[in-house]
Amino acid sequence: MSAKLSLRGVRKRFGDHEVCKGIDLEVAEGEMVCLIGASGSGKSTLLRCMNLLEPIDDGSIWLDGVDISEPGLNRQPVRQKIGIVFQSYNLFPHMTAAENVMLAPRRVKGQTRDALRPRVEALFTRFGLGDRMEHYPDQLSGGQQQRVAIIRALAMQPEIMLFDEITSALDPELVGEVLDVLRDLRAEGMTMVLATHEMGFARELADKVCFLDAGRILEQAPPEALFSNPREPRTKAFLARVL
Amino acid sequence: MADASSQDRAAASSTAPTRRALYEAGVRRRANRIALISTLSVIVAIFVLVPLAPGWEAVQKSFFNGRVFAATFPGLLDAFVLNVMIFAWSAPLIALTGLAIALCRDARAPALFPLRLFGIAYTDIFRGLPVVLVIYIIGFGVPGLGLPRPWNSPYIWGTLALVLVYSAYVAEVIRSGIDSIHQSQRSAAASLGLSDRDTMRYVVLPQAIRNVVPANMNLFIALQKDVALLSFIGPVEVFRQAGVYKSLYANFTPYVGAALIFLALTIPATRYADYLMNKQNKARR
Ligand SMILES: Nc1ncnc2c1ncn2[C@@H]1O[C@H](COP(=O)(O)OP(=O)(O)OP(=O)(O)O)[C@@H](O)[C@H]1O
Ligand SMILES: [Mg+2]
User: Fold this and answer.
1) Considering the domain boundaries, does residue B187 fall inside one?
2) Among A46, A48, A51, A57, which Cα is nearest to A23's?
3) How far is Cα A38 from Cα A92, in angstroms, rounded to an integer?
4) Could you tell me if B196 and B81 lie in one domain?
5) Atom of ligand 1 nearest to the CA of A15
């Protein structure tokens, strides 16, 4: 019954500005959770806290019943289990797409290029990039770069994937493609947390939608309930603006 | 069908110049013509006016003496081989030491704080001293300890002085390159589970070093010139050799010969560094 990932009273501040003001969130195995909320409400920050890119100030984060937010804990093994894809791709510009993808499995897991090759090729093909493996990031379109970034995170075979507005740079036809991939990943049993501005996305795929407002989760519910019947006036106002 | 005709049009436009291309070519031709004429008139003016100066004949005899030039230039070239050799073994040592010092300064672990302190002290001290002074202190000081051969060689200690000073500058350049890599690159590497060491080695350093190649090239051009300073502690390189010829012929022309040799090397290198720098600036825009 215990959740795959759970946040309890997570607080995070940058200087005087408290960005997360006590976040409680449970993500079950195989579940897909969407974070929605206005720009600056703290979605990206919350995701970065989840895989320990940002240290939290208070509260705790539990992965498989282990407190991973313990100060001083070795963060590398945790990050291997929680992959993240950023809004701005953040590919390594001096490496080809294939090298970008293989770097971490080689250095962190000690796998060889030859052993990785078939799996990596399969991933590139699945994302429609079979012929782009030897291209450098600046030779790829934004959409292609984002797909490489997804492949790069998946190549570490994480147990949880975090996506931070990964579709905001994609062409409309690529959004559909990525949606299919997310559906695939979910069918595989991948646990996912997604920050998104695309409400259609959240409505169709999510098990649970969380509305973030000024550093708090104001309301969380299955998409049907939240979108058609929001309880909080602020949620209502937000949805009225974006829908 | 529509596709084929648009391809034809694309092909046609890539061969025949457009109206704009014709106009711009015209503007360029006119600009080049004006630049050529004004440059030529300045050169002619110099050649006509300078010889009219009252001291010109004396200067020409002692600085631009063809006979002395012909007699000494081959010897200068021979001596320059030593400059090249000193440069050739100093440069890799400087690059490696500079990189090591830059990494020392970037060490973040508390246990490595002494390293960091060392890096800061090193760069502060050696960038704060004139090169000549370091060469004098080390080049005369260390052999003065009465070390046995070959440890009293001015080559070793002169090279060490150059390495100390120049690696401090190279370290600062590399560090600025490391700083210029955006934090999101480190985040991306960390999120994949890479250690700090691997992040530095595979993600940050390759990009940082590529960014600072032109700046470092300028340092190495300066090094090529400063090799001449070693002449003060012994090695007979081109500058010292020119001094010997000057005394022999009682004429300054050998110095001009030495200057020409330096310029033959440093001007192309400087142009190349500038070219790289421009290319990089354009790529960034
Ligand atoms: N490194 C940082 N230092 C200081 N303030 C930060 C930092 N990162 C984020 N913030 C602040 O935290 C707040 C939340 O930012 P965050 O990026 O998490 O919002 P978001 O919900 O992802 O917004 P968006 O939808 O625009 O991506 C913002 O006010 C932002 O200015
Ligand atoms: Mg964001």
Assistant:
1) yes
2) A46
3) 30
4) yes
5) 4
CB-nearest to B210 from A75, A80, A94 is A94
Same structural domain, B70 and B45:
no
Which of B190, B198, B203 is the closest to A79 by Cβ?
Answer: B190
- Binding site membership of A210 for ligand 1 (Cβ less than 6 Å): no
Q: By the CB < 8 Å criterion, does B195 face chain A? A: yes
The total number of structural domains that make up chain B? 2
Specify whether B137 is located in the same domain as B237.
yes
Instruction: Give the DSSP per-residue string, A107-169.
Output: HHH---HHHHHHHHHHHHHHTT-TT-TT--GGGS-HHHHHHHHHHHHHTT--SEEEEESTTTT
Residue B193 with chain A: CB contacts under 8 Å = 76-77, 79-80, 104, 108, 156
A76/B202 touch (CB, cutoff 8 Å), yes or no: no
Q: Cβ contact (<8 Å) for B202 and A91?
A: no
Sorted by sequence, the CB contacts under 8 Å of residue B183 that are 6+ apart come out as none
Residue matched to tokens 């782009």: A132
In a domain, B60, yes or no: no
Do residues B150 and B22 share a domain?
no
By most ligand atoms within 8 Å of CB, the mutation choice from A14, A36, A88, A212 for ligand 1 is A14
The per-residue b/e assignment along B209-219, b for 16 or more CB within 10 angstroms, e otherwise, is: bebbebbbbbb
Does one domain contain both B77 and B23?
no
CATH number at residue B128: 1.10.3720.10
Contact status, residue B198 vs residue A110, Cβ threshold 8 Å: no
Do residues B217 and B277 both lie within one domain?
yes
Asked, for residue B75, whether it belongs to a domain, the answer is yes
When CB atoms are compared, the residue of A48, A83, A92 closest to B203 is A92
pLDDT in tens, chain B (285 residues): 444 444 555 445 567 888 899 999 999 999 999 999 999 999 998 888 888 888 888 888 889 988 999 999 999 999 999 999 999 999 999 999 999 999 998 888 888 899 999 999 999 999 999 999 999 999 888 877 877 877 778 888 989 999 999 999 999 999 999 999 999 999 999 999 999 999 999 999 999 999 999 899 999 999 999 999 988 888 888 999 999 999 999 999 999 999 999 999 899 988 998 898 888 877 765
Summarised one tens digit per residue, pLDDT across range A184-195 is 888 888 999 999
Name residue A7's beta-bridge partners. A25, A61
**What is the predicted ipTM?**
0.91
> Distance, CA A45 to ligand 1 centroid (Å)?
6
Range of the domain at B30: 2-52
β-strand partners of B66 = none
Lowest-confidence pick of A1-5, A125-129, B129-133, B264-268: A1-5
